[in-house]
């Protein structure tokens, strides 16, 4: 009976040691995550694929850093930048990015877990300042929104790709101008719109007038052709035809044959 406690104590110690060892060795990688293995001897493991989702066993003296490899969104609000003429513009933008499985170990080795603050934010701000500085406030407010969005994306991508960060999109959500500049631009745009409408009305009126002139000219030409084709003989024949039709009418009348100009009949009386 005295020997049981002496045997049980080492076993208990071994069991506790195993529990601690397993606890330190077991790692659970969540959905959408990858584990970057840091070895006590050798540092960050970049030659092998990162640890996948689920339960993983690693040596207790090594360490695992978890990274989200899904697409993530960074919202940059009210970035203050200068336009080409030196006026301050405030711009809101969303950045869609992700750490990829293939390069996540290199990202951890070169940039670390705070890469969003240390790399992405400065890159977006730098690219935005560079792009917006090429345009006037009027261009930014009206016609160039899509252009600056594309250019900011391209500039940011050049900065992030060599640093093992995949950039998926840059979305410019809002461009805020100083109130006085915005009002001046809106007045100018309104005046331009009114001018375009006035020019349109002038062009429309000119086309209508041209149409009327063409129709009148056509009628005049038709009358000339008709007049040229009507000889005295034709007119007499037409007059006789008309007289015959009138004579057949039931209304009372007196017809004097050959008494009119050019020998045409004259009709008297109409009751």
From TrEMBL:
<protein>
    <submittedName>
        <fullName>Prohibitin family protein</fullName>
    </submittedName>
</protein>
<dbReference type="InterPro" id="IPR001107">
    <property type="entry name" value="Band_7"/>
</dbReference>
<dbReference type="InterPro" id="IPR036013">
    <property type="entry name" value="Band_7/SPFH_dom_sf"/>
</dbReference>
<keyword id="KW-1133">Transmembrane helix</keyword>
<keyword id="KW-0472">Membrane</keyword>
<keyword id="KW-0812">Transmembrane</keyword>
<feature type="domain" description="Band 7">
    <location>
        <begin position="24"/>
        <end position="189"/>
    </location>
</feature>
<dbReference type="InterPro" id="IPR000163">
    <property type="entry name" value="Prohibitin"/>
</dbReference>
<feature type="transmembrane region" description="Helical">
    <location>
        <begin position="7"/>
        <end position="27"/>
    </location>
</feature>
<dbReference type="Pfam" id="PF01145">
    <property type="entry name" value="Band_7"/>
</dbReference>
